[in-house]
Amino acid sequence: IMERKTHVKINRKEVMLAKLRKSCSCTPQKLKNFVMDFFPVLRWLPKYQCKEYIWGDIMSGLVIGIILVPQAIAYSLLAGLKPIYSLYTSFFANIIYFLMGTSRHVSVGIFSLISLMVGQVVDRELLLAGFDLNDDAPPALGDGSLQNDSLSNTTAFNLTIAGISAECGKECYAIGIATALTFVAGVYQVLMGIFRLGFVSMYLSESVLDGFATGASLTILTAQVKYLIGIKIPRSQGHGMLVITWINIFRNISQANLCDVITSAICIVVLVTAKELGDRYKHKLKFPLPTELVVIVVATLVSHYGKLNEVYASSVSGAIPTGFIPPAVPQFNLMLRVAVDALPLALVSFVFTVSLSEMFAKKYAYTIRANQEMFAVGFCNIIPSFFHSFATSAALAKTLVKTSTGCQTQVSGVISAMVVLLVLLFLAPLFYSLQKCVLACIIIVSLRGALRKFRDVPARYHMNKLDTLVWVITTSASALVSTEIGLLVGIVFSMLCIVVRTQRPRTALLGQIQDTGFYEDDLEYENLSTVPKVKIFRFEAPLYYANKNYFLKSLYRLTNLDPNLEAARRKKYEKKEKQHLQKGNHRTANGLGIGETTLQLVPKQIDFQALVVDCSSISFLDTTGVNTLKEILKDYKNLNISVLLACCNPSVIDSLKRGGYFERDFGSMQEMLFYSIHNAVLFAKDQK
User: Fold this and answer.
1) Residue numbers of the chain with a pLDDT score lower than 50
2) How much is the pTM?
3) What is the spatial distance between Cα 295 and Cα 544, in angstroms, rounded to a whole number?
4) Which end of the chain is more exposed for a tag (fewer CB within 10 A), N or C?
5) Residue 588 domain-assigned?
C-alpha cells in the first residue's frame, strides 16, 4: 500500500506579498544586479579572453559585415525602402544586441521574412495615401535625399493625413510607416518581456514556422521576378498577391529588358555555383567565399562603364547618400494605423531570435535568458526606429556563417557594424550604378534553404502525416493569401490538430504477454493471451468534456456491451414477464418456464465480470471526465460487473477524490484503484 505525502499548504497571499516586497525594495547590490542583467555585456566583457577570442571574432565580424552590405542593399527592395535605411538597420541592430543580447553567436539584423512583412505594410499605407507604388515613378515632394528638390507629384498625397508635414513625400512617408511599425513591434516585445509572455512562442510549432518561412519565400521570389526580367508592373497588394503578380508578369513578359535578363542569368549561375561549391568544400575553406560582394562589385563596374542604364534602360539602385540623417521621433498617428500589423511582426521576430539563440547555446554548451532576449530584440527595434531603421531579427544563414568562421562572442557584431559604418560614411555612393536585377538575384539565391523544404515533404510525410498537413496549409495560406493570415491559419490549424488528437485518440483492449505481468494492445502484437472474465481497456488521452462521448462509444464497441441498452432490454423483458405472470400464465414471453427465465436475464455476449481501465495515458480529468467514470461505474455495477482503475497518476486520483468517485471515507479505494494492471487483474480473478 502506497501512502501519499502530506503537503504543507502554502499561503499564496503571503508568498505574493513577500515577492512584491522583495521586488519593490531597492538596495545598491540589487540595483547593480539589475543593470548587469539588463546589459549582459557588463558581465562577460571584463572576462573577455583577448588572445583566445579576438582573431575568431575579427574574422567572423569582417565576413558577416561583407555579407551584410549587399544583403542590406538587396533587402531594401523587399521592404519598399531606400538602401540607406537597410544599412542603418544593420548598423544599429548589431550595436544594441552586443550590449543587451545573451547569445554569443546569433547574427541580428535585416532578415528577408521581416523585410517582406514590413514592405507589405508600407505598400498598403502608400496606396491608401495615394502614392504610386511604381519604383520608377517621379519622386514626390521632398523625395530622394530628403531635400525639397522636386516639384513633381506634389498632389499625389493629401498632406494633412496622419499629421505628416507638407514637405514629406513618398520616401519620407514610407520610412515613417516603417519606423512607426518597428517602434510598436519593439514596444510589444518589451511588454511581453515585462509580463513574461515568452510562452506564447510555444504555440508556433516547427511545422508552422517552416511552412510560414516557405510560403513567405514563395512570396519573396514572386516579388523579385519583375526585377529579374526588367518589366514594370505595379506592386500587388492585399490577399492573393502571388497569383495577381504572376498574372501581371505573364501579361507583360513581352516587355522584358534583354539586358536585365542576361545579367540575371549570369548572376544566378555564378551565385548558385559558388554556393554549391562552398557547401561541398566548406570543411576545407577557412571562411565562406564573399560571392555576393564580388558579384555586386563586378556588376556595378560593368553597369557604370557600360552605361547600361542610359543605353539599355536597365533599372539601377540610384543615389545612396552618405552619413546619418538626423534622428526623428516616430509619428504617433502612424502607430495607430499599424498597431495590429506590428503584433505578428513582433511575434515572428522574437520567435526566430530565441529559437536560434537556444539552438546555438545548446550546441556550444552555454545558457541564454529567453526573457532578456525578448528585451534585446525589443530595444533592437525601439531605439533604431528613432534613426530611420526598420524591424530586425536573427537570421539563420548569417548565424551559421558566423559560427563557421570562428565567432566566440558578440564582439564580432561590433566588427560587422564597423564594416557597415565604413560603407555608410564613404562607400555608399559607389553603388549608384548597381542594377536592381543583381539585387533580386542575391535575394532569390538566399532563399535556397527555405525552398529546399519542398524536397523534405516525402520524409516529413513518412514521419508524421498530420504535421505535414499543418506545413502544407501554412505554406499555402502564407503564399496564396498573405503572410500574416498564413501565420494565423497555421497557429489555429495546429491547435485544432491537437484538439482532434485528444478528441479521437487511440483506444484498445489489452491482452497479457505470456508468462509475464505486462499487458499490451492485442491488435498490435501477436501471441497475447486474453484474460478470462476480465476486459482491459486503454484510453490514450486526457478524459475531458470534448472526448467523453468518444470514450464511451469506444468502450462499448470494444467490449461489445452497452450497459444502458442491456439494462433497458432487461427492464423490458421483466415487464413482459410480469404481465404474463399476472395473467396466470406460467410460460414467459419467450415461451420458457419460470425456472428458465433467470438464464435469459444474463445475455450470452457478456463474457466478463470485471472491467479494468488502464489510466496510464490519462493525464488529467475535468468535471465531465470524473462524472463519466462515475457513470460507467454505476452502469456496469447494475450488471454485476466491477470497474477497476489502474495506473492513475496523483492528479487523476485527486480529481476522483474531489469528484466523489470513492466512498466518503475512501475505504473502498483499495478495491477500486490499483497501481498496476496486473494487480487489478489478480484482484478481479479472486472476486466471486
Assistant:
1) 137-166, 589, 594-595, 597-604
2) 0.81
3) 61
4) C
5) no
